[in-house]
Amino acid sequence: MVLGSLQRPLQPPPDGLDLWPDPVEWSNFSAVPRFMPLARLLLNSLLLVVVAVPVTVIVTSMAGLAIVTARGRVRRWLIGVSVLMLFVPAAALWVPRVVLLRSLGLADTPFTVSLLALAGTTPFYVLLFALAYSRIPSSLLEAATLEGLSPYAVWRRIALPLARPAVVAVAALSGLYYWSTFMDPLTLVSSPGNWPVALGLRSLSEMEAALYPIYLAAAVLVTAPALLAFGIGQRSFFSSVERS
């Protein structure tokens, strides 16, 4: 992708393996804003991630603690339902989401896709937190309750700090998901001015083949922030694992 973004537009593809373009066309990157409102789309995606990631972490971490603190049959039932929800195809949720959000007047805004975080994004994150919380001694949580701490205080002051690796992992995974999500905004957001950058990038895929180096340059610009954030999140994850 990087090498393709440095090819000269309006030229035939290289004959054979081309390890490095000659000449290198760095101007492809500066030409991207002429074909798509890159700054606006990046801002939309940034706002989406900034809103959706914290909501996802809060909702799934609370749900995971609810599973761990449940007793006997209720706990097994909650785990079973979470696992069962993992097998529900994403396509089966597209129409209900569109109908629900449009009926509430919440469709077609820059924050529409972030509303999915209120449902935890995916049950996998809930199970990940439940696994992290299960390693906390139950006596510690019970002692906190006996000391008069509310369920919210137990979650905020005891459970969440002890599950920091899970927090970092869920934040990183959900951040990458909301940055790169395509089908959710395609079904929920119709105004181009409210598109996230992944959906705007898709519009460039219809360019003629001779201009594909510009399309690949746009793909590099869109992918770079996600790779940088993932690298920072990975380092933070290993750091939190070592401290725990």
Keywords, separated by commas or semicolons:
244 residues, mainly alpha, MetI-like fold
Compact description:
This protein is mostly helical. The chain has helices at residues 2-5, 27-31, 38-69, 72-86, 91-103, 123-134, 138-146, 151-162, 164-180, 183-188, 197-204, 212-243.
Task: Set out the fold topology.
Blueprint: H1 2-5, H2 27-31, H3 38-69, H4 72-86, H5 91-103, H6 123-134, H7 138-146, H8 151-162, H9 164-180, H10 183-188, H11 197-204, H12 212-243
Helix pairs in contact: 3-6, 3-9, 4-6, 6-9, 9-12, 11-12
Total beta-strand segments = 0
- What about the largest sheet? none
Report the helical percentage: 55-70%
Count of individual domains: 1
| Global outline | elongated
**Topology order in helix (H) and strand (E) letters:** HHHHHHHHHHHH
CATH superfamily: MetI-like
Spatial extent as radius of gyration? 22 Å
Poorly predicted ranges (pLDDT <50, ≥5 residues)?
none
The N- to C-terminal Cα distance equals 38 Å
CATH class: Mainly Alpha
Q: Mean pLDDT, rounded to whole units? A: 85
Please name the CATH topology: MetI-like fold
CATH second-level architecture: Orthogonal Bundle
The helix count comes to 12
Q: β content, as a range?
A: under 5%
Helix/strand/pairing category:
mainly alpha
Structural account:
The structure is a single chain. By secondary structure, the protein is mainly alpha-helical. It contains twelve helices and no strands. The mean pLDDT is 85. It has a single domain, classed as MetI-like (MetI-like fold, Orthogonal Bundle), CATH 1.10.3720. Helix 3 packs antiparallel against helix 9 and helix 11 runs antiparallel to helix 12.
